[in-house]
Amino acid sequence: MTGQEQDLGFAPEDDAPIPYMHRIWEYYQTLGYGTPYRWAHYAEVPFQPLKKPLAQCRVALITTAAPHQPGKGDQGPGAPYNAAAKFYRVYSGDTALDHDLRISHVAIDRVHTTAEDSNTYFPLPQLQRCAAAGRIGAVAPHFYGMPTNRSQRTTIERDCPKLLAHCRADGADAAILVAN
Amino acid sequence: MCHQTVSLAARYLEENGIATVVMGCAKDIVEFCGVPRFLFSDFPLGNAAGRPKDSDSQASTLELALRVLEVAPAPRTTVQSPLRWSEDPAWKLDYSNIDRLSAEEIQRRREEFDRQKEIAKTIREAPTAAG
């Protein structure tokens, strides 16, 4: 960087969103898994504006976290990746209750975070506070767990219809989906 | 997979009349898929809803997601949270960065990956898959 550029207040070049698809591609190529993963990619994106003010909307929370499963290995905080804790079916939980959800079964950043605070990936308590304050109309009666399947066909053709049926049964107007 | 899964789910719900917002930390995966609304936090994966043990951060992150839900003018609306994980961006160089791993570590990870894949396969193919 020249002196002239320094005056402009540019951030360091590495201070940009991590290029995950490239990192993951390079990582698995080097590990010896030849065929690159084909990521889902669409040119067209659907759009459904809110049909009423958020203060009147019933909002569903969707997570990829898994209920803690005693006996299935270390699930954290600070657990290494644990495939034994994975799940492969959409599940739901009563939003009026407290839940112990974990993310040891997905590829979080284990160097820089430990998943010690579930509010960083499962904001149900915060969403309940928003409902109590009138910011949203209500939290849907259930939250839903989405399995993270490598097969996009399974996600789209089996899991998404199930998720939609849950949302409709609960009368959800809007949904917040939290990735890990 | 996780960011891709929620992106596909957001698209599906939206196509069927339910407005959505994705909260995530992997900007490229979500935008490559293409979603209606996205609140991006430039945080390590696992912190899409805010910083650990920081209720102000968590509250402001969810509030921003709600704002995106309300006011996005068109699909592919991405808003980046103004919160920073750390003043030093060096953490971004670590995730799955092959340049930072020794040959021994790469071999160890290969073996671990195969082991975990077998475990996942066993669960996936079980007659009553978990969940």
Molecular structure report:
The complex is a heterodimer of chains A (180) and B (131). Chain A is of the alpha/beta class. Chain A is built from four helices and seven strands, in the order ααββββαββαβ. In chain A, 24% of the residues lie in helices and 14% in strands. Chain A is globular, with a radius of gyration of 20 Å. Chain B has 131 residues and is mainly α. Helix content of chain B is 46%, strand content 11%. Chain B has helices at 2-15, 27-33, 55-71, 103-124; strands at residues 19-24, 37-40, 77-80. A three-stranded parallel beta sheet of chain B has the order 1-2-3, sandwiched between helices. In chain B, β1, α2 and β2 (37-40) form a beta-alpha-beta unit. Chain B is globular, with a radius of gyration of 18 Å. The model of chain B has no long low-confidence stretch (mean pLDDT 92). Classes of the chains: A alpha/beta (180), B mainly alpha (131). Chains A and B meet through α2, α3, α4 and β7 of A and α1, β1, α2, α3 and α4 of B.
Shape of chain B: globular
What do the pLDDT scores of chain A average to? 93
Terminal CA distance of chain B: 18 Å
How many β-strands of chain B, per DSSP? 3
Quaternary form: heterodimer
The main sheet of chain B comes to:
3 strands, parallel
Task: Measure the end-to-end span of chain A.
Answer: 35 Å
Rg calc of chain B: 18 Å
Amount of beta strand of chain A:
5-15%
Question: Would you tell me the structural class of the helices and strands of chain A?
Answer: alpha/beta
Pattern of helices and strands of chain B: HEHEHEH
Topology record:
The complex is a heterodimer of chains A (180) and B (131).
Chain A lengths: L2 H4 L13 H12 L26 E6 L2 E2 L23 E4 L6 E2 L21 H9 L5 E2 L2 E4 L6 H18 L4 E5 L2
Parallel strand pairs in A: 1-5, 1-6, 1-7
Antiparallel strand pairs in A: 2-4, 3-6
Chain B lengths: L1 H14 L3 E6 L2 H7 L3 E4 L14 H17 L5 E4 L22 H22 L7
